[in-house]
Amino acid sequence: MTMAGNLRKVTGLGRVGGLRRVARLARRRAKVDLSHPARSPLGSSVVNCVTYLDGVRAPSGADLVETVERVRKKGHGFVWLGLHEPTNAEFAGIAELFDLHPLAVEDAVEAHQRPKVERYGETLFAVFKTVCYVEHEQLTATSEVVNTGEIMVFAGPDFVITVRHGRHGSLGPLREELESDPVQLAKGPAAVLHAVADHVVDDYLHVTDALQADIDQVETDVFAADGARADPGRIYQLKRELLELKRAVVPLGRPLLDLADRPARVVDPEIQAYFRDVSDHLQRATEQIAAFDELLNSILQAHLAQVTVAQNEDMRKITAWAAVIAVPTMVCGIYGMNFDHMPELRWRFGYPLVLGVIVTACLSLYRGFRRNGWL
User: Fold this and answer.
1) In what order do the strands lie in the sheet with 78-84?
2) Segments of 44-143 assigned E as strands
3) Which of 204, 279, 343, 367, by CA, is between 20 and 30 Å from 212?
4) How does pLDDT run across 278-315, given as a tens digit for each residue?
5) What is the DSSP string of 316-331?
6) Residue 79's beta-bridge partner residues?
7) CB 93 within 8 A of CB 174
8) How much is the pTM?
9) Residue 26 in 3-state DSSP?
């Protein structure tokens, strides 16, 4: 049977013309190592392409079409294809080869999707938001604290396609960790899907732990002696970054519960128990984010209350000094009137007496305000 005939049989694709294009493209391409991103015949977006048989990495094939055909002939094992920000043109041939749904393909290429898990026939399509903590020496009103990206996973009976968007979230260490556990990897594409979900959720916990230090620092600054002078922009910036983290974490709760509870042909029943564990970790991250949000609201309200108190104290001081200054102003205003007949105008001790009265009144007012805490 020809290559096109084999692909038509194992993939169930009805687009004969598309399969012919894939097979013709495979005959034209040079036989090079798929694992080398710079020389990959599938384009520069390919990070890696590996075949696993019984949980063990098999020798790399010369061409993706031949690799998939060989795995499907054996009836076991799967292909793991890793991509980084592919274009429509680079992903078109792969989508036809694995019979991926057009809507899922569009989401995988365009990115900026909400975390979700969708089912298209025997293929699961999962979207995970990746996050990383951005190190900074000092938190400011413009500091970037949380950086987000995306990982899309297509999990079929004999293939896993991971599409990564963003500068972080590399799956290389995850692949090495999985390869060190052939028993887990032998459970098929669902094992890779679980590992990716667990990796992403663990990053959520790491980021929330790092955010705790920033929130503690802001809280300490606000409740310091000069807390009213703290920059409220830092609190708003933390709330904005926390909102971005919340958008990545919270929507993933329902999809993980579906993977843990709803049966799927791609997901082995043993793997479903692992998804429940990931869901528990995600719940912990969700609760931490909710607690951080409430704490930041309290810190912001406390800061605004401190500003109000400081303003009231300033107004009391201004009022007290105005009252002290009003005494000499009033006396001088009275004796500044140009009347011919005013008491004590020609008295020898009139001037010292007036000055004494002014000083005594001002000192009395100052002492009273000082005793009451106004000055």
Assistant:
1) 56-58, 46-53, 78-84, 159-165, 146-155, 123-133, 116-120
2) 46-53, 56-58, 78-84, 116-120, 123-133
3) 279
4) 999 999 999 999 999 999 998 888 888 888 877 777 78
5) HHHHHHHHHHHHHHHH
6) 51, 159
7) no
8) 0.73
9) helix
